Amino acid sequence: MVSSSAATPIAADSEQPVLRDFGGGAFGIYVHVPFCATRCGYCDFNTYTAGELGTSASPASWLAAVRGELAAAAARFDLLPTPTPEVATVFVGGGTPSLLGGDGLAEVLEAIRAEFTLASDAEITTESNPESTDPAFFARLRAAGYTRISLGMQSAASHVLKTLDRTHTPGRAVAAARESRAAGFDHVNLDIIYGTPGESDADLDASLDAVLAAGVDHVSAYSLIVEDGTALARRVRRGELPAPDEDVLAARYERIDVRLRAAGLTWYEVSNWAAGDSARCSHNLGYWDGGDWLGAGPGAHSHVGGVRWWNVKHPARYAHRVAEGGLPAAGWESLTPEERYTERVMLALRLRTGLPLADLAPDAAPAVTRAERDGLVRRTGTHLILTDAGRLLADGVVRDLLA
Ligand SMILES: C[S@@+](CC[C@H](N)C(=O)[O-])C[C@H]1O[C@@H](n2cnc3c(N)ncnc32)[C@H](O)[C@@H]1O
Ligand code: SF4
Fold first, then answer.
1. Which numbered ligand comes closest to the C-alpha of 225?
2. What residues form DSSP beta bridges with 293?
3. Cα 356 to averaged position of ligand 1 atoms, centre (Å)
4. DSSP letter string over 304-340?
5. pLDDT at 347 over 50
6. N or C: which end of the chain has fewer CB within 10 A?
7. What is the C-alpha to C-alpha distance for residues 66 and 327, in angstroms, rounded to an integer?
8. Positive or negative torsion for Cα 35, 57, 32, 120
């Protein structure tokens, strides 16, 4: 265990990440809220129910630790050659940030403002579970300075929500989206999950009807992933539920894209659609463009100038590490040129803007030719871009380019 003052330069053999400088791209802050009222059967995020935590951690002890981590990180960044950039984006995610309530989330933002300078036009998002929101909650967030709300809707079909162990009613997410818009949020996202066992085309259509009726300017649509170690994985293994079918998933994706496109929401990343450039999630674009970000909170990941670190996962251990001083990192790595290239190809190709041809290694040329021949990518003068068919097979195209 290494403990060191945040303002002390760290030796190269330390567990603490050795930072060289900022990378020069956008700078964002992610804060991880590790609490959920109940655990959804499909989810393997680093999150805990009150029963799982007992007295080992609480929202109050978590917030105190986050304050400590932000202070330690700000002090560490002050040692770098380049002044710490203004924070262009903040994303409070989870877990279920809305469990902190409007006042708790306002305190999170104050904690960031105490240590960092937010850009005057910063995008400030919080995720929320529809069941822990109401009009007063959204009004409080808006007054505190949040600019964007992301709501986990998943489906409008009650039997699908039941399979996913979601506890809100089908209508609650749409009502929450409307309440957030009424509170003055121009930027609202709904997350949906498609391909849940038992979901029909008609169920998906009902979800899309609900999304479009909510009038949001952003939609994230994720195919259901059966994550190891989850209750869903156990049910699939026992034969109680079928695994999601790849052909069904592809057909559902196309259905989503057609409906959203017709309503003026265009894809800008394989799983994300927005009503114009200003509706895109700048924070996530920072990740996908290889920007710098500090991830605060249990299990959060950070990336600064090609150095990546990840925090200890359990909230009690996280708070303990913060109290010891320094960053609560469980590990860190300095990306090699090969790793940076792999990340660049994986992330940029999933974007509508595509991968700059100049960034592609010469030995990828045969794979590009194959993907073009198969109608999976097209070349503009400067970029390689997935076609509609290519978006369905994005992972395979990336694998081939990197083989
Ligand atoms: C942190 S949650 C969103 C906020 C809040 N906790 C909620 O669930 O309403 C992030 C999103 O990840 C997606 N997600 C989580 N696990 C998934 C899985 N196994 N397969 C597909 N999507 C998943 C869900 O759409 C979820 O809304
Ligand atoms: S999907 Fe959201 S509410 Fe459900 S367990 Fe995961 S983080 Fe918690």
1. 1
2. 28, 303
3. 31
4. ETTEEEEE-SSHHHHHHHHHHSS--EEEEEEPPHHHH
5. yes
6. N
7. 11
8. positive
**Probe target for ligand 1 pocket from 42, 48, 91, 167, with the most ligand atoms within 8 Å of CB:** 42
- Please determine, for residue 3, whether its predicted confidence score (pLDDT) is greater than 80: no
* Cα–Cα nearest to 260, from 122, 348, 391, 134: 391
Alpha-carbon span 167 to 188, nearest angstrom: 21
| Percent composition of the chain: helix, strand, coil (DSSP 3-state, to 5) | 45, 20, 35
378: tokens are 């097209």
pLDDT averaged over the chain?
Answer: 95
From atom 7 of ligand 2, which residue's Cα is the shortest distance away?
95
Instruction: Specify the DSSP class assigned to residue 375.
Output: T
Phi, psi for 55 (deg, rounded to 5):
-95, 5
Tell me how far CA of residue 128 lies from CA of 92, 138, 150, 180, in angstroms. Answer: 9, 10, 6, 11
Provide the pLDDT confidence category of residue 5 given band limits of 50, 70 and 90.
Answer: very low
Please check whether residue 371 is in contact with residue 394, taking contact to mean a CB–CB distance below 8 angstroms. Answer: no
DSSP lists the bridge partners of residue 193 as: 222
From CA 110, how far away is CA 69, in angstroms rounded? 14
Q: Which two tokens stand for residue 95?
A: 């877990």
Residue 396 identity (one-letter amino acid)? G
Q: Is the CB of 189 under 6 A from ligand 1?
A: no
Instruction: Answer for the pair 59, 104: CB distance below 8 angstroms, yes or no.
Output: yes
Q: Which two tokens stand for residue 342?
A: 């792999």
In angstroms, the CA 33 to CA 298 distance is 8
Q: For the whole prediction, is pTM greater than 0.70?
A: yes
What gap in Å lies between CA 311 and CA 388, rounded to an integer?
A: 37
Q: pLDDT tens digit string along 67-76?
A: 999 999 999 9
Which atom of ligand 1 is nearest to 220's Cα?
A: 25
Give per-residue pLDDT as tens, 44-53.
999 999 999 9
Sorted by sequence, the CB contacts under 8 Å of residue 306 that are 6+ apart come out as 20, 23, 334, 335, 340
For position 168, what pLDDT does the model report? Answer: 84
Q: How many CB atoms neighbour CB 379 within 10 A?
A: 12
CB 388 within 8 A of CB 335: no
Under DSSP, the state recorded for 35 is B
Residue with structure tokens 């960092």? 116
What gap in Å lies between CA 252 and CA 194, rounded to an integer? Answer: 7
Residue with tokens 């008609």: 202
